[in-house]
Structures are given as C-alpha cells and as structure tokens.
Amino acid sequence: MPEGPEIWRTADSLTNALKNRPIEDLYFAFDELKNYEAKLKGQFVENVEARGKALLTFFDNNKVMYSHNQLYGKWMVSDSGEQPDTNRSLRVAIHNGEKSAYLYSASEIEMLDREEVNQHSYIKKLGPDVLHPDTTYEDILRQYQSDEFKNRKLTTLLLDQGFVSGIGNYLRSEIMFYAKVNPRKKLRAYSDQQKASLAEATFKLTTRSYKTGGITNDPEIVEALKRENAPRSDYRHFVYNRTDDHCHKCGSIIEEEKNGGRKIYFCSNCQLET
C-alpha cells in the first residue's frame, strides 16, 4: 500500500489537473453517489489533500469527496476524455476542459460537507501527518514524548496511523535506522535524545521521500552510487528491502526480522548497540 509521500504526490497530481477548472462531467459508479453527478457539474475543485492514506477532494460548493484506495485503488490522470487502458473497475471520473481524473478499484468513497471532515470515523483517529502544511517538528516530537504511547513497541507503533499518519513499512525501517535506535524496544526505553532523533528522522525522511519520489537515502550516497551506474534498488533506501547487502554507512550486512507478519530491516552495527 502506498505510504504518505506517495499519497501526497497523488494529491498534488490531482490538484494540478483539476484545480480552478470548471467540471464539465462526472461519473460515480456507486448508486448512493449518483445524485452528485448533477450537483457537482459546473463546480470547481479547490484542491486535493491527503489525510493519512486517504484523499480529500475539496469542491467550491462546500462538498468534500473522501476516498481511500485501500490495497487496490488507484488514481490516474490523462488529457480530457482519454481513458487509461486498464482492466481496473472505474469508480469515479472527473472531467474538465483540459484533464480527466479517474479513480479505479477503490471501495471507500463518500461525499461529506466540509464541516464533517474532521469528524469522519477514519480521519478523527489519525495522528499528525508530517506532510500536512500545518504540521511541525514539535507536533511529531510530542507524539514520541507522549505517555499515551510509551508502552508500545516502536516497530508496531510506527505503523499505527493514530500515532503519526502516513508511515508504512519502508518508512518505518528507514526512520529507525536514521535515528540509530534499536528496533526491539518499547518507546519508554528510549532516551529523550533518542526520541528527538526519531522525531527528526520521521520528519526528515518522510519529507525527503515526498520530494524525491520515494528515495530516503542521503543525497550524497545516492549521487555516488548513480555515478557507478547502480540500479535504483541499490541507492533508494538505507536498509529497507536490502537484506544481506552492505550498510551504506558502516559496511556491515543488513539484516531482517519478521514483526507482526511484516519485515523490518536494520543494521546491527549501527542500531543494536544503542
């Protein structure tokens, strides 16, 4: 499933395609949304934002479309009226004079009034989203310092959208590595300095991944490996999905462990001694 950086890039793509252009036609596959086809025609999309792993499409008539892709949903953008070649099931289509946006295979789509957004059952449970313009480093640090989470194991906590929203499996391993922390501990076991390092890593790597299209590794390491014609899989991440490869920082072998049915990746030399 895409993580926060990927969801926000999708939001940016939809905003660029739809913002401030009158809607010429719409399509909703679900019967309970059909009446909005006429209501939204002629309206404008103001912007599209991510909330955790969901998207909010804001219309200028106070309506907001909530959509969550789950495992299989996918947005695609094309020139107006040109439908992508796909076998996926079309759920939503929004057309203006220049672009069309298509949502395929998603199962969770709702229309809300703007004042209902923050009380939506999914959204109200979310922790701060690093990539939201209003979120600060201090917001993320407070989550790590909060007594509410202190008895949780870090590896499971980082996947809890109520802690920090938008983090998934690759960011989890990368954050723990960048902060140089032992991934096997509960949050209460880390020092104040380690919690500050975790907050910094969360903020920095999520933002870096968003800006680079999914790369979390240090820019200088990335550029050095590119000069050697290394494949993207070698330079994209510090540790994620790099089992048995050498750590970019110390040269030790990257290891993996199963945790709650999902793998974490780490460097024992850089992390387990902390």
From TrEMBL:
<keyword id="KW-0326">Glycosidase</keyword>
<keyword id="KW-0540">Nuclease</keyword>
<keyword id="KW-0227">DNA damage</keyword>
<keyword id="KW-0378">Hydrolase</keyword>
<dbReference type="GO" id="GO:0000703">
    <property type="term" value="F:oxidized pyrimidine nucleobase lesion DNA N-glycosylase activity"/>
</dbReference>
<dbReference type="GO" id="GO:0008270">
    <property type="term" value="F:zinc ion binding"/>
</dbReference>
<dbReference type="InterPro" id="IPR000214">
    <property type="entry name" value="Znf_DNA_glyclase/AP_lyase"/>
</dbReference>
<dbReference type="Pfam" id="PF01149">
    <property type="entry name" value="Fapy_DNA_glyco"/>
</dbReference>
<keyword id="KW-0862">Zinc</keyword>
<keyword id="KW-0863">Zinc-finger</keyword>
<dbReference type="GO" id="GO:0006284">
    <property type="term" value="P:base-excision repair"/>
</dbReference>
<keyword id="KW-0479">Metal-binding</keyword>
<comment type="similarity">
    <text>Belongs to the FPG family.</text>
</comment>
<dbReference type="GO" id="GO:0003684">
    <property type="term" value="F:damaged DNA binding"/>
</dbReference>
<dbReference type="InterPro" id="IPR015886">
    <property type="entry name" value="H2TH_FPG"/>
</dbReference>
<dbReference type="GO" id="GO:0140078">
    <property type="term" value="F:class I DNA-(apurinic or apyrimidinic site) endonuclease activity"/>
</dbReference>
<feature type="domain" description="FPG-type">
    <location>
        <begin position="238"/>
        <end position="272"/>
    </location>
</feature>
<keyword id="KW-0255">Endonuclease</keyword>
<keyword id="KW-0511">Multifunctional enzyme</keyword>
<protein>
    <recommendedName>
        <fullName>DNA-(apurinic or apyrimidinic site) lyase</fullName>
        <ecNumber>4.2.99.18</ecNumber>
    </recommendedName>
</protein>
<dbReference type="InterPro" id="IPR012319">
    <property type="entry name" value="FPG_cat"/>
</dbReference>
<dbReference type="InterPro" id="IPR010663">
    <property type="entry name" value="Znf_FPG/IleRS"/>
</dbReference>
<dbReference type="InterPro" id="IPR010979">
    <property type="entry name" value="Ribosomal_uS13-like_H2TH"/>
</dbReference>
<keyword id="KW-0456">Lyase</keyword>
<dbReference type="Pfam" id="PF06831">
    <property type="entry name" value="H2TH"/>
</dbReference>
<keyword id="KW-0238">DNA-binding</keyword>
<feature type="domain" description="Formamidopyrimidine-DNA glycosylase catalytic">
    <location>
        <begin position="2"/>
        <end position="118"/>
    </location>
</feature>
<dbReference type="Pfam" id="PF06827">
    <property type="entry name" value="zf-FPG_IleRS"/>
</dbReference>
<keyword id="KW-0234">DNA repair</keyword>
<dbReference type="InterPro" id="IPR035937">
    <property type="entry name" value="FPG_N"/>
</dbReference>
